[in-house]
Design goal:
alpha+beta; Phosphorylase Kinase, domain 1; 4 helices; 32% strand
């Protein structure tokens, strides 16, 4: 069995949120850049949270160019991690940086809805 340190090289921390810490990493066997999300244990739940199970279930089923790809789920004695394809920006950052920090205006939202409707 290959250890996590033999499989992925952590490069930098990208963010720390409610459910986990996300790192930019390199898959050492494929040289693919990935986002490595180390899940935090939730105080009020035993085992894996229901929101994490929903995220995993949905991402395993959904295969689309506009949906981030779940590469691997890693479950160890120390906890669970999710490996995603790497994206240089996330939707929250794009929204926060748009329109001088005011977020998306209604015209941009309409354009995106039309785009996704016809794709």
């Amino acid at each position: 069995m290959v250890s996590l340190k033999e499989k992925y090289e952590i490069k930098e921390e990208l963010g720390d949120g409610t459910y986990g810490v996300v790192y930019r990493a390199i898959n050492l066997s494929t040289n693919e850049e990935v986002a490595y999300k180390k899940l935090k244990k939730q105080k009020d739940e035993e085992g894996v949270s229901s929101s994490t199970l929903r995220e995993i279930s949905l991402l395993r089923e959904l295969q689309h160019v506009n949906i981030i790809r779940l590469v691997e789920v890693i479950n160890t004695v120390k906890g669970m991690s999710l490996v995603f394809e790497y994206a240089p920006q996330d939707l929250k950052k794009i929204i926060d940086d748009t329109n001088g920090g005011k977020g998306l205006d209604n015209e941009i939202i309409k354009v995106w809805f039309l785009y996704f409707y016809f794709i």
